[in-house]
Amino acid sequence: MKFYSSTGDDGFTSLLGEGRVPKYHPRPDTVGTIDEATAALGAARAFCRSEHSIATLLQVQRDLYQMMAEVAATPTAAPRFRKINAQRVSWVEEQTDAISASVPIPTDFILPGDTPASGLLSLARTIVRRAERKVAELLHSGEIENDEILRYLNRLSSLCFALELVEVQASGRSSPTLAKE
Length: 181
Description:
The protein has one domain: Cobalamin adenosyltransferase-like (Hypothetical Protein Ta1238, Chain: A). The relative contact order is 0.17. It is built from six helices and two strands, in the order ββαααααα. It is 62% helix and 3% strand. Helix 1 (26-47) packs antiparallel against helix 5. With 181 residues, the chain is mainly α. The chain has helices spanning 26-47, 51-72, 78-81, 86-100, 116-140, 147-170; strands at residues 12-14, 20-22.
């Protein structure tokens, strides 16, 4: 078995279902951005000190894997891959709410990078926000139908921020570095 297929050498990629689209089409572009978010979350997870952060990020990465499959699917094939639903969005909200009850929320903007994990979570948050914008484009243009994907990504950016605060606290710091002196 090879690590490459050579099927994309013409600048096109296959969708899950029938059809191929240019690699610069919004659908594979969005899948790629979600994949970037997953990788950034994995890098953050590798540096996390909090076991809760590690477990939460692992589940999020699994959710994003499912999300990529649905976004990569043709409209007729997408329901077969649909795993992101209102329950998954609620789970993200529950995780964020639990953290907000235990970690003080800063009153000013914070600067990323107090710890390797918090810096990577901040990076992941910005990639998730870009993925959210790309999913919104697909949703508004009728390329995808599942609006729960958009809601999930919107909540995930908040969860990334909350986990960033958890990781700063887990490092022994009393508060994150604020943007204002």
